[in-house]
Amino acid sequence: MKDVVRVRKTVIMLWDEERLEYVPTSQWGANDFHVTIPSGHPLIAWLRENRTLAIKDELRTQLEESAEKDKKYLLETFEWLDATLVIPLFVHQELTGIILLGEKLSGERFYQEDADFLEAFAPQAATALENARLYQQSLQFNERLRREVEIATKELADANIQLKNLDKAKSEFLSIASHQLYTPLTALRGYISMLKE
């Protein structure tokens, strides 16, 4: 991305299901970017509603034509994000992430050809990031499954040892019990044999 569009910084933010916000997952040219964006933020609402990329200069032009407070707040959002352009990433009609682009290295503004390229790039990037996320989830699932199988195997081995010990104890008990029963019977047989004689 940095070599094609040639921007000062790029930040990829993806939706975090647990935190219910968009969190930075990858960055280039941004020093320790830790800003998160909640689901209800006006920028997210604007991206969901318009389903297109947001360019700071175009919003500024629209703001001059309209006195809407939301657009002014959007411009302030671009300032604190230090972004010039925001690309929404939609997968199955859901906003799964955004890409923040800083200023161009040349200092020029983003033109329509840049916007067209980035619009065409966004679905491919969204699909690639979603595939990477699903792959990561499958790796985590496999690891969790492996640990659970190890635990279950250990529990079965312990249970098997206990069963062997119980079987050994049962065999010893039967041996002792049969010996204890057999000894008095031997004496009785002897007395009965003597009585017959």
Features:
single chain; 6-stranded antiparallel β-sheet; 6 strands
Notes on the protein architecture:
The chain has helices spanning 2-5, 42-50, 56-65, 69-81, 112-196, and strands at 10-16, 21-28, 37-38, 54-55, 85-91, 94-101. The protein is an alpha+beta fold and 197 residues long. It has a 6-stranded antiparallel beta sheet, with helices on both faces. β5 (85-91) and β6 (94-101) form a beta hairpin. α3 (56-65) packs antiparallel against α4. It is rod-shaped, with a radius of gyration of 36 Å. The mean pLDDT is 82.
Summarize the topology.
Blueprint: H1 2-5, E1 10-16, E2 21-28, E3 37-38, H2 42-50, E4 54-55, H3 56-65, H4 69-81, E5 85-91, E6 94-101, H5 112-196
Antiparallel strand pairs: 1-2, 1-6, 2-3, 4-5, 5-6
Provide a brief overview of the structure:
The chain is α+β, with helices and mostly antiparallel strands and 197 residues long.
